[in-house]
Amino acid sequence: MSGIVFFASEVRAETVSFYVDRFGADVWLEQTDCTVLQYDNMRFGFCERESADTDGILTFVTDDRDGVDALYDDLADCACDPPEANPRYDIYHFFAEDPEGRAVEVQSFDSVTEPVR
How many Cα atoms occupy the beta-carbon half-sphere of 10 within 13 Å? Predict the structure, then answer.
């Protein structure tokens, strides 16, 4: 089984380009007014609507802190703060915003986790 999380978007093309160009997400499916993206094992879509869904957080997980730092370098213009350790969750992370103001988190787990399938 799999799943897709959808978000309403006022500027779908710009938002899709952000995730494709800045994160390396792939277009998995193009529909009439929706685009579904895939990043590793995560699928998420944006559908053209009159108002945007901006609640929630899209979290991208990298293999290690170097991956977080590399994405921070690419996203510094839309990042809220530099990467930092968060001992409560045993992660290293930072937050940014996409073109519509959605929260985007980039993180790595400092603890050992099972590989993504």
Answer: 10
In whole angstroms, what is the distance from residue 24 CA to residue 101 CA? 19
Instruction: Measure the CA–CA gap between 100 and 84, rounded to whole angstroms.
Output: 24
Q: How many CA atoms lie within 13 A of 48 on its CB side?
A: 10
Neighbours of 52 (CB within 10 A): 20
**pTM across the whole model:** 0.90
Q: Which parts of the chain register pLDDT below 50?
A: none
Coil, helix or strand at residue 42: strand
With contact defined as beta carbons under 8 Å apart, do 106 and 62 qualify?
yes
Quick one: pLDDT at residue 116?
A: 57
User: Rounded to the nearest 10 degrees, what angle do helices 65-75 and 12-23 cross at?
Assistant: 130
